[in-house]
Amino acid sequence: MRGIIPNTLVLFLWSLLVSHVASLAKTDTITWGGDNSRTGYQDNHNMDPTIVASAQFGQIFRAALPGVYNGAKEQIFSMPLVYTLSDGVQYIFLATTHNNVYKLDAKTGTIIAKRNLHIPFLVADLDGCVDINPLVGVTATGVIDPDTETYYITSKTYANQAGGNGAQGLLNGRYYIHAISLNDLSERPNFPVALEGTVARNNPVRTFGGGIHHQRPGLLHSGQYIYAGFASHCVHDNFTGWIIGWDKDSGAIVERFATQGLGVDSQTKGAGVWMSGGGLASDNAGSMFFSTGNGYASQLSTIPVNGRNPPTSLEEAAVHMSINTDGTLTVADFFMPWEKTQLDGADRDLGTTPLEILPSEFACGDYKRIGVLTGKSGKTYFLNLDDLGGYQNGPNKLDDVIYVYQHENSVYAGAGVYPGEGGYIYINVINYPSRIFKFSCVNNFPTFTVVARTPESNAFSGLGVSHGTTTSLDGAAGTGLFWLTDVNGYNLRIYNAVPSNGYLTLINKFNIPGVTKFSRPVFGNGRAYIATNQGYLYGFGAPVNQPLNCSAPYEFGTANLTQTSAPKTITCKSLIAQSVSSIAMTGNPDFAISNLPTLPFTLANGGIFSLSSVFNPTAIGVLSSDVVVTTSNNLGGYSLTTPISLRGTGQSVAPLLAVSPVTVAFQGLITGQQPGGVNQTMLFLNNGNTDLTISTLLYSQTSETGPYISPNDTSAGPSVGPFTFYDLPTTIPPNSVAPVTINFDTSHSGNFATYVTVKSDGGNKIFDVVGTAGDAPKAVVEFQTPDGLGWVTYSGQNFTFGNVTENQTRTLKMRITNNATTDSAALSLTISKAPFGSGGLISANNQIDLAEGTTIAPGQNATASIYCSVPKTQWNTDSYSGSATWEINFNDLSFGHQKLQFVCNAVAEQSPPLLPNGNGQYRYVGCFLENNPGRQLKQQLYGNDNSTTNMCIAACAAGNYVFCGTQYNRECWGGPTIPNLKVDERNCDYPCKGDVNQICGGNGFGDGQGKSYISLFADSKQFNGNTTSPTTPSGPVANPGVNGYTSIGCYTEATTGRALSSGKTMTLKTVANCVTACAASSFKYAGLEYGQECWCGNAFGAGSVPTTITDCKTPCADNSTEYCGAGSRLNVYQFGASSSSSSVSSQSSASLTSVTSQSLSLSSSSLPTSSTSLSSSSSAVQSSVSSTTTSPSSSSSDVQPTISVTSTSLTSTSSTSSAAPTQSGPAVSPQIDYWTFLGCYTESDTGRALSSKTYANDNMTLDSCGVFCKGYAMFGVEYGRECYCGNTLNKGSVLAANQADCKFLCPGNKLQYCGAGVRLQLYAATPPTSSSTLTSGSLPSSTSPSSTSETLTSTSSVFSSTTLSSASISSSSSSTVVSSSSTSVANPAYTGPPVVSNGNVNFTYYSCATEPSSGRLLPSQILNDGAAMTIEKCLETCWKYAYAGVEYGRECWCGNTLNVAGNTGATPSTNVSDSLCSFTCPGNSSEFCGSGGRLNLYWFDQAKADRNSGKATLEF
Predict the structure, then answer these.
(1) pLDDT of residue 21
(2) What is the rounded distance in angstroms from the CA atom of residue 1474 to the CA atom of residue 1477?
(3) For 460-472, what is each residue's pLDDT tens digit?
(4) What is the pLDDT of residue 1368?
């Protein structure tokens, strides 16, 4: 028969229907917090406050989990989930730290099934992180997919499952994704999926490691995909956050997103996603929300950044991501607290709680969607989810959010949310009562006011109190409850949700040993489940204890309709002495009871009674009822009712008719739009076991009660008014379905209805058919004018935002109106593809407003917000346009399928002088590296605390400079030549002092951090982009070498492993950057591969051999003029090697002639301020130092230079050799211009050895320091990069006992030595003409390796004599400089302990000072540098302030006053022991840089500054 579905297929479809109907019962909990909003509000679990508050509510079971591993019981950090399977039974599904999965009966806690996934990971491998101890297995709450009845979880284990029960090491940890059948806990096909080695899609230098990372947030199910968030254990190792997504069926990884994204090197930590176990949130319309923790990339500092232009490093952030159709994610918006850098330094994660999506009851005015989260700082943030706020965009550079509230302490718990009775928010604060906010909407602005608190305080530990959870009884007013679990006090506390007289009312409380931290009560049908860390799951509900054991349920099996089954005897045993007053049936009438005892009657403890029951089904399928026995007793804690469950399955032997659906509705159709009408399908079903015959079909247009008449017969089928029925069956086989098509003729307008009865030998059924047809809707699409005051109607043109200035966002609305008459059809959006999450300037706020399927009644309208957000750019850049498309269509055929175009013109501020086209004459060129080497722009025009870009450009224009640059927040520089190296724009990150929204240079990011960068502009009338720039080669060549490393050719990759084993990350992919990276680690070889990879090593891997130079043919990614290897080919550079391609040019060398040691006579007169006569002498300067170095060999050991110190004279003669070799390695330089080497000296014991003038630079050379110190008597270089000048050598600075201590190579010339930690490469001026007397505070003697005591005389046969005046440079115990003519001295690293720096030329050390308990001792954080912070760097930066201090090893703070008292009520700052400032400086491990909450504090010493101002200079 046509249209009949076969028996096998119908049974399959029917089973799916039954399964689907049973699949998400009203009282199930299938995800963390109940739904994807993560608010924890649940109105569907039959939690009646009357029962919950009564004595009947209590512990109904304590389920013991049997697992024991290494003596440890199971712990439940993954919150249980509750689900009703197709058998009608509700079950609990949970997983533990043992990697065990359980299925339990939700009523009794009985374990139905269990499975072990893997061996667990041991906390012993986590280097002291014991937050979860001693095992880590499954620690994140999974998610259940009701469509497939699959339970998704992640588990942590080891690579070797046969490795025993001991620790296998951190790097052997592994993570797996599991998909588990809810029926038998078996693994679904394609699972498990291993995550080890996953490479981040948004940052290929990052790789996922299962040992390091930790999965705590609840999983998110969104459509076809599942997502999991990761951080690490504690803040150990690389605690970068990840979001990993996979296809729920195939297991294919669809997203690999690292929160430290592009441009952040692989070692920078931070932005973990953990949220105290809270879940990733979603609006179920294509958006994801979460929060992150602290980190050290710190891309944002002092310049406000719009939320629509997020950084790639998402530290301390609330994040909004779009979920794309392929499962990938795109960052759409972000919020970062204004004090982000301070939060990082104090390890105060914003991401300790999930970002929750408040229900629609909290919408107010234009704030349609509001989110809430609270961080470790104790601040609760209420955010506009459609515009999170970005960074420092509020008034005074604070937060651009709806509201911020500061609590007394940290918060590790997501908010509780109750939308009823006006709306309340609950925040569980550590060691304080929970705070309750009342929502109100005033003048279309949402407000949240603290109106109450809990009577009790929460746990004193941050690892105790739960996420807030609320329930109601189907949303009824007066039924709201607030639930809280805590590790202290009563472990389960239940309150009325609505406060009274400023407090929540506690209605019930329970003690539960071992409540899990960061937990949340989970709900089933009238029951609550509490997880513990002691091997138990607790169930709470009513009744507390059953007084009878009746061995329920009773199964009757299958019975025919209206046929009574064989009776079953129900036997009940009394568990206590009690009286039975009633025995009655509840539920459907398919079961009956008989042979009841005479009521009432009494039962002793152990007494038995029985009754009979039969099953007489009236419907097919699984049926159930309860026998309820009502009792009374004199004991507390026992229920007064006992339910006895009866179950059976009904079937029909005779035919049995059913119809589905019972109402067929044709809605919103347009008259005449669809010729032939509109069809829908319904089903006629035969649920019986024999053929069903349909006798007739009748209809009524009055009501379901009739009167009924026969329809009109047509060739197509029976017809009733505008409805025609096709494919009506006459016979339906057993257990089969017959589809019936109904056609609605829409040629006439109006509302139509008919009631149809189907008569058959399997019974009669009635269904309704209704239809509405009206005039066509009329779509009118409008967009706001750029000023937001008017509307522009769409007629094919582009909608425009107008000009939007950089770092600004303009939000406008699109409005769609149904402009039809009142009796017309509703306007429906049949296609609506909003521009959301696709990048670019323009985007919709979300995918909810004006989504597909939106209907608009005649005369009504609906709106959606769209924004144009222009990224931060420099002034005087060119404007550019952005566009986006909103594809749209309606059921208004006259409008047609349209692709609405939105355009936005992004503009930058333009500074005069202006060109005729309105653009600035000085165009922005880019961010350039300064001091590369030396000043690039050499003329400083000013240094001004009101400096801005336009102020500097005006100064440059007045001086007619071609190039103009802003630097160091406040400086303006000019010059005729463009700097050498343009770099990534992110290196220029300093705000201008006069306007924080402008950029004035920077100190770099990533590998380039700590250097000097200038924001460069060029006069477009004098600069055409090339004429004054350095000449560049016409094509790429093999760089011959740089910084002491020489090209040795092109090499193949190794046959196994790598040719060079140590990889380095380069911000800019050039030969020079790779060589610098390898030299910093003292590697012998540097190699570049694939145009962008840098590899270092001391020996080649097996199989790596030289090959033809032309094999290396890939240009460097960031310098197209040179080659950087190729695929499996490396351009290799060797330290100290001879050039392989060029001859050595003739050079001149000084001849060193040995002379006897002579006495150096020093007077004690003071240094005159004017030049004096020089005494005549003819002796030469002794203690000139020669150097030899061990040349690099093919061994893999590090090359260590040795210094041979001899007593020699430097004669004035020189010899020229046409074949003189180039210097092959670093050596002591005996002479730098007119400066003579004195030796390797220690630092002063009271401050700096030389304290008149100083600077530091990452390209330091002896030559540049000598130029800088011109006019002073001495200069010294320390730490490789610090230059000091002075006329006196301060007390305690002496000749180092081991001259090889000065071993740091100069970064700007790797062939020179530049001191070491607390060791100076010291030089004295030897003037070419007239004499003068030099003053030295004290140059005491130093004990040399020899026991010989000598005095040294210094004269020069080249220069006239200089007499050095000193209180005492030589004494009876003065040292010998050398002990032999060629003693080889080793060059060890500095091993002394770190010390407290005494300051610099301007600042003097004060003390180790604590921060006040609230507020800051110093107001302004100027620098935050976890890679290169030193005391010197901070003091140089704070030069114009009265005080400076370094804290947390990385933070530099400045100010003109000390806020000793702190904020009102705070504990004041105090001076403490220097030993408490114990963090070493990352840029100088030999000195201290404060500690947590403590600063090494310095004050501006005016007297010292005056002494060191350089007024006593030399006249040469």
Answers:
(1) 35
(2) 6
(3) 755 679 999 999 9
(4) 28
To the question of pTM greater than 0.70 for the whole model, the response is no
Phi, psi of 1329 (to 5 degrees): -130, -110
Lowest-confidence region among 148-157, 341-350, 1254-1263: 341-350
Residue 748 has pLDDT above 50, yes or no: yes
3-state secondary structure 524-551: CCCCEEEEECCCEEEEEECCCCCCEECC
Residue 233 zone, left/alpha/beta (φ > 0; ψ -120 to 50; rest)? beta
- Distance of CA 1047 to CAs 1037, 1103, 1262, Å? 12, 20, 25
Q: Which helix (H) or strand (E) holds 1016?
A: strand 1013-1019
CB 75 within 8 A of CB 536: no
* Greatest pairwise CA separation for the chain in angstroms: 139
Is the distance from CB of 1350 to CB of 1376 less than 8 angstroms? yes
* Residue 1226, φ and ψ in degrees, nearest 5: -65, 145
Alpha-carbon dihedral sign for residues 1244, 1250, 1256, 1259:
negative
d(CA 838, CA 884): 9
Choose the weakest-confidence range: 170-184, 232-246, 774-788, 1348-1362. 1348-1362
Q: What is the pLDDT of residue 1467?
A: 86
Separation CA 1119–CA 1116 (nearest Å): 5
Coil, helix or strand at residue 958: helix
Separation of alpha carbons 269 and 843, rounded Å:
31
Q: Does the structure show a pLDDT above 90 at 342?
A: no
Distance of CA 1465 to the CA centre of its chain: 35
Q: How far is CA 261 from the centre of its chain?
A: 9
Given a contact cutoff of 8 angstroms between Cβ atoms, the answer to whether 529 and 522 are in contact is yes
C-alpha pair distances (Å), 457 with each of 427, 482, 1213: 12, 15, 87
Residues contacting residue 110 through CB under 8 Å, at least 6 positions apart:
63, 104
CB 483 within 8 A of CB 471: yes
**E runs forming strands in 1112-1257:** 1115-1116, 1119-1123, 1129-1135, 1147-1154, 1203-1205, 1208-1217, 1231-1232, 1235-1242, 1253-1256
Q: Does position 1422 have pLDDT exceeding 70, yes or no?
A: yes
Give the model's pLDDT for residue 539: 94
Burial class (CB in 10 A: 0-12, 13-18, 19+), 21: exposed
Residue 1247 and residue 1226 in contact, taking contact as beta carbons nearer than 8 Å: no
At 409, which amino acid appears? Answer: N
Question: Among 1498, 1450, 1452, which Cα is nearest to 1474's?
Answer: 1498
Answer yes or no: are the C-beta atoms of 370 and 363 closer than 8 Å: yes
Of residues 265, 253, 274, 246, the one with CA closest to residue 206: 265
Q: Is the peptide bond before 567 cis (omega within 30 degrees of 0)?
A: no
- Contact between 1476 and 1379 under an 8 Å Cβ cutoff? The reply is no
What's 777's DSSP letter?
Answer: P
Residue 500 to residue 963: CA distance in whole angstroms: 70
Q: Which of 142-151, 170-179, 529-538, 822-831 has the lowest average pLDDT? A: 822-831
Task: Tell which wins on pLDDT, 1388 or 540.
Answer: 540
The pLDDT of residue 621: 81
